[in-house]
From TrEMBL:
Taxon lineage: Bacteria, Pseudomonadati, Bacteroidota, Chitinophagia, Chitinophagales
Name of the featured protein: LPS-assembly protein LptD
Residue ranges, compositional bias (Basic and acidic residues): 758-774
Span list, region Disordered: 758-777
LPS-assembly protein LptD central domain boundaries: 245-720
A Pfam family recorded for this sequence: LptD_2
PANTHER family: LPS-ASSEMBLY PROTEIN, LPS-ASSEMBLY PROTEIN LPTD
Length: 916
């Protein structure tokens, strides 16, 4: 009877070979084995020299080597023979593996030598190349090369220790697993594995050597629970790793209940990176457009530098829309994208012409950014948003677009010459008011600037600098073409008639001299010349009919040609800074208040070089007139009329306070608080003016109280009195018996603040959002984040962050203006007062309510309001959006998976009510 011996503490104990195993309590039993056995002896035993084969067969004192932890003497033991010996060469069998298998088990490992089988008990683990298998029970048969892993039962009869297979990045969780090490095929029962964002659960699974998977009786879901909230049930499924999950006919099952929704086949992409494919449309119901499919289309990936997204919408009442969104990028050079949208909206019955209307609209958006390192000294960027005024009316429903009635575009190019004072910029700008339908376009616009140079300053200064060393001269040239028109005349002759072109040249000469130590004396000389290509002449026409009951109005004509006007001035300025501080007692929490004043006084003289650029405009029947320039609509400005010998004055103030602070770790225990960041007044007095020598006073103030409340305010005060029709009189207000420095003709104040829960996670996320909004980058991934951020801002109900318990943003604005209407001479007063607020709060950890709205105090009514309610359904999310008041009222409810791969699988029900 053959025996095998166990080495333990250097003592040999003979035991029957059938029974024993190597059993160790904690720590685990470790070892390694190869599929090659020699006469029933595992390869990891100590080999006998090849020259003594007879004794090797008969020797009954072979010593199998167990795990290193079980060796108690000082002799090092190796579990794998990898060296070479000149005395012998180990003989390997033909079915040997090309790599060792390492193994361990907490309870025990049993080797049945005649059957060539291994048994592993207690949290067993084996590793072979990139395959890692763990289970409570495992056994390996050398003859077949099959490793089997199963669960075990606890004292209550419940299974535990499910097999876990990680094969080259693919993970499987199952009840029973059989893996053939030779063929690398596997049969898995009741398994669950993850592919990308999706999970596949199968009753039976076959794994092929190429890592492809065939499943029988499967469920596909993006829910990560053991019992998912929803899944697609399919009889057969195939998984091509890192590419696709393909299934035959599938049925949607929710909470274990089958639904009537069947699909003939399904393809779930799991490819990382760019992949062309179909974009599934979403079903909607619109009260005005009918039933429809939205946002369906196709994505075309054309490599690392270009891709294209095509989307379309179609409705049962005949409306449709198409959108093309190409993006392009070249790493370290540039990045951009464009959106071209066309829509055809139909309302009513075409057979009844009085009730039928159609609107054809378009929208063009383009953004381009250039990497600053691509061409040092050159920058090019574009942000274009242009379209018809009705596009938002019929095609956009989000809150941000509804409350924004202005569109703007900007395309700019700039170049600076390194080491030289030259700079060049060129741009195209566009602004559009969707309410008034006014459009303003400036193109082309160009500016060439020569920075201030000091011609009398030596390259190497020796000794003390002279006053003329600081004499500087510069140049600024501006070319601008602009036109303002209604969007209905775009591209027509009326638009080109209103086109204004002009050039302005400016040559400033200045230098500064410190005087009396604390003062700065700055003389200056400036000359400007204006070139125009068109005159604008406005004249009173008593026969012009404005309405049925009114005659008389202003006619406007244009006269083309070349016209020039000039302006020159010289002046000096003196400025300084004065500091004052008041300190409180030692026991006061307020330590000190510091006041900084920065007064400025300047004197300017300007001859009258622009007299021919002005004329008398009569604007009423009783011949009331006002001086107006022929170039009022000029794109480069207009020179001032009349001689001027004026003194300008200004005073800026800053107020700060120091208080006691327990949080300050320094010895002073003081904290600085800004009471007023700035407040002041400025104006001028013209000694040579025929009338109204004193200018209006401009006052302003700004502060940020407690780093929480931003306040800005400003106003204009007119020191002259007016008559009953609002015309200024040559008398000061205080001469009329009023105790006042003047009349308030315009004023504005704005306050804004933000509050949110003090949760650390919420603050961190808000900072990350602000960083994304303010950061600039040309990286494609970053641009994708920006587009996702825009979607979050536009659809807050579908992108709710439940980690922020509550937040509230408030802003208030008040504006006041009082002026004279030039065409009629009447006085008009405009007051606008508006409060906007938006925020959200969590009713429970899974329910959130939010609102975006405002209140117009002038009209005493709520502004456009959007209320949304969101519910976190674990792997799904429900959002309810409600626009309860206004011209465009809307209600919609959307339920969609959170997973990006199933984002288009959404259920939407919406109703829209137009109050046309």
């Amino acid at each position: 009877m053959r025996q095998i011996y166990l080495v333990f503490a250097g003592i040999l104990i003979a035991i029957p070979f059938i029974i024993t195993a190597v059993a160790t309590p904690a720590p685990d039993t470790y070892g390694s084995f190869n599929k090659s056995f020699t006469d029933g002896v595992p390869k990891d035993t100590v080999p006998v020299p090849k020259t003594d084969t007879s004794s090797r067969r008969k020797d009954t004192t072979l010593r199998p080597v167990t795990a290193p932890e079980e060796v108690t003497d000082s002799i090092p033991v190796s579990t794998d023979y990898t060296g070479t010996d000149s005395m012998f060469v180990p003989k390997l069998s033909k079915d040997s593996l090309d790599a060792p298998i390492t193994y361990k088990a907490k309870d025990s490992i049993v080797l049945v030598v005649p059957d060539k089988r291994f048994y592993f008990y207690g949290t067993a683990n084996t590793k072979y190349k990139k395959t890692n298998l763990s289970a409570e029970r495992m056994n390996y048969t050398q003859a077949t090369g099959i490793m089997e892993a199963t669960t075990a039962l606890d004292t209550a009869g419940k299974p535990y220790g499910r097999p876990q297979l990680d094969d080259n990045g693919q993970a499987f969780d199952s009840d029973t697993l059989r893996y053939n090490i030779t063929t690398q095929r596997a049969k898995i029962y009741n398994t669950r594995s993850q592919y990308g964002e999706g999970f596949v659960a199968s009753e039976q699974t076959k794994r092929e050597p190429d890592n492809s998977i065939f499943g029988f009786r499967n469920g596909y879901t993006t829910c990560n629970l053991d019992t998912p909230h929803f899944q697609f049930r399919a009889r057969k499924i195939k998984v091509i790793p890192d590419k696709l999950v393909i299934s035959g006919p599938a049925n949607l099952e929710i909470e274990g209940v089958p639904t009537p929704l069947f699909i003939p086949f399904a393809i779930f992409p799991i490819t990382h990176g760019q992949q062309s494919g179909i974009l599934v449309p979403g079903y909607v119901v619109n009260a005005q457009k009918g039933m429809g499919l939205e946002n369906g289309g196709y994505y075309v990936g054309l490599g690392d530098n270009f891709d294209l997204t095509l989307r379309g919408e179609i409705y049962s009442y005949g409306s449709w829309a198409l959108t093309a969104s190409p993006t392009y990028r070249k790493r370290y050079h540039y990045n951009g994208g464009m959106t071209l949208s066309f829509s055809n909206t139909r309302f009513g019955d075409p057979a009844v012409k009085t009730e039928f209307s159609r609107s054809r609209d378009f929208r063009v958006m383009w953004n381009h950014s250039m990497d600053s390192k691509a061409r040092p000294g050159v920058t090019f960027g574009a942000s274009v948003n242009f379209g018809t005024s009705k596009y938002n009316t019929f095609n956009v429903y989000d809150y941000a677009s509804r409350v924004n009635n202005n569109l703007g575009s900007s395309i700019s190019f700039s170049k600076s010459w390194q080491g030289k004072p030259f700079n060049f910029t060129s741009s195209l700008t566009h602004s559009q008011n969707l309410t008034t339908r006014d459009v303003n376009i400036s193109f082309p616009s160009a500016t060439f600037t020569v920075n201030t140079i000091y011609p009398f300053q030596p390259k190497e200064l020796v000794g003390r600098a002279k006053w003329y060393h600081k004499l500087g001269i510069g140049y600024n040239g501006t070319l601008n073409n602009s036109v303002t028109f209604k969007d209905s005349v775009f591209g027509k002759s009326k638009m080109f008639d209103a086109l204004q072109s002009g050039v302005r040249h400016a040559i400033p000469i200045s230098f500064s001299i410190p005087v009396f130590k604390n003062f700065t004396f700055s003389p200056s000389i400036s000359y400007s010349e204006y070139w125009f290509t068109k005159k604008t002449i406005r004249a009173w026409n008593p026969n012009k009919r404005i309405s049925i009951d009114s005659l008389g109005g202003i006619d406007t004509t244009y006269q083309s040609g070349f016209y020039a006007a000039r302006q020159a001035s010289t002046g000096v300025s003196l400025s300084t800074a004065l500091y004052g501080m008041y300190q409180f007692g030692k026991n006061s929490k307020i330590k000190a208040i510091r006041h900084v004043m920065r007064p400025t006084v300047s004197a300017t003289f300007a001859p009258d070089l622009a007299k021919n650029a002005y004329y008398d405009l009569y604007y009423t029947r009783d011949s009331q007139k006002v001086r107006q320039s022929y170039f009022t609509s000029s794109s480069v400005g207009v020179p001032s009329e009349g001689r001027a010998a004026s003194i300008s004055f200004g005073l800026d103030n800053n107020l700060e306070m120091k208080v006691f602070s327990k949080k300050d770790t320094s010895a002073n225990k003081e904290k600085k608080i800004k009471l007023l960041d700035g407040f002041g007044i400025n104006g001028s007095y013209n000694f040579l003016a025929d009338s109204f020598k004193l200018s209006t006073f401009n006052i302003y103030a700004r502060t940020n109280l407690f780093d929480k409340l931003n306040i800005t305010a400003g106003g204009t005060i007119d020191p002259y009195a007016v008559n009953s029709r609002g015309r200024r009189l040559e008398r000061f207000v205080w001469q009329e018996g009023q105790f006042s420095i003047g009349r308030l003709t315009s004023a504005n104040i704005a306050l804004s603040t933000s509050f949110q829960s003090s949760d650390k996670k919420s603050k961190q996320k808000e900072q990350e959002l602000q960083k994304l909004e303010n950061e600039q980058s040309t990286d494609a991934a970053f641009q994708a984040q920006q587009r996702q951020l825009q979607a979050i801002r536009k659809n807050p109900g579908e992108y709710v962050d439940f980690d922020i318990p509550w937040k509230l943003d408030l802003s208030y604005s008040l504006t006041y203006t009082k002026g004279i209407i030039p065409d009629s001479g009447g006085v008009v007063i405009n007051i606008n007062q508006y409060l906007s607020f938006n925020g959200d709060f969590s009713l429970t950890p899974k329910w959130k309510i939010g609102v975006n709205s405002g209140y117009n105090f002038v009209e005493n009514k709520l502004a456009y309001t959007n209320v949304y309610i969101s519910r976190d359904l674990h792997c799904w999310q429900m959002s309810i959006n409600l626009i309860p008041i206004g011209t465009y009222r809307q209600f919609s409810i959307t339920i969609s998976p959170k997973s990006g791969i199933l984002r288009d699988l959404r259920l939407n029900r919406s109703r829209t009510f137009y109050d046309l």
